[in-house]
Here is the input.
Amino acid sequence: MERIPILKMGEFLLVTIQVDMHDRLALTLQDDLTAQIVARKAHGVLIDISALEMVDSFIGRMLSNIANMAKLLDAETVVVGMQPSVAITLVELGMPMRGIRTALDIEKGMAALHAFTGNRSFSLSDGVLTETNEEDDAGSVL
Amino acid sequence: MQVASSETYEIRGSDDIVVVRQAVRQRAVALGFNLVDQTKIVTAASELARNTLQHGGGGKAAIEVVKNSVTSGLKLTFTDEGPGIPDIALAMKDGYTSKTGMGLGLGGAKRLSNEFEIESQPGQGTRVAILRWKGL
Here is the structure.
């Protein structure tokens, strides 16, 4: 069965969508990604859509679903590389793209993921798990 | 308006949605549509092809290259023999949700096109046509 590969880079998962996805393939990616977030204990997902010449409501909803499901699994999602013509079309289509963070390219997307997740370090002292946040919570939301 | 060429595609599964949008892309590129206009008509085609499949139970897409005295364009007609749409005005509203869609199909496709037509008879099927002119 056709699948879109999911790569692991440190604590992040990286997906590059390079084919014109039919609906089943998009749903398979959604299932695979959520499974991999848990299996690989990932804290971030970077989805590169720079090769996508079109994002319709189905693919848009799939991206939005992935971001929301990842959030429930304690992972942040950043979608990178959207073509300007795709952005224009999505707005005219009226696609809300709820909960999706975007960055212009992979480099900026990785930087954003590091910023979202970098302040999440835990230390075990006196048998008590304490969270050491260098920034306050408001700082982690763009 | 005269029809310069016409081709028809069957829509029976989600793979056919991809076939239709790739065919529309090829025609739009051949006609010299700019990238934004290509993306708009391909996206509208994808929405309507999915409606034909999911709501109409499958059907046909006709892709026509049309010309008037000024410019050329692409006309796409989607027909099915499904249950039809009882309330077209309601179905055109954003946020109208069928079982599987987000309800952006019809309203979204209309906004992405220059011209839009819809005919539907409950129990007899639906026909949706969109037209996008080059450079408009």
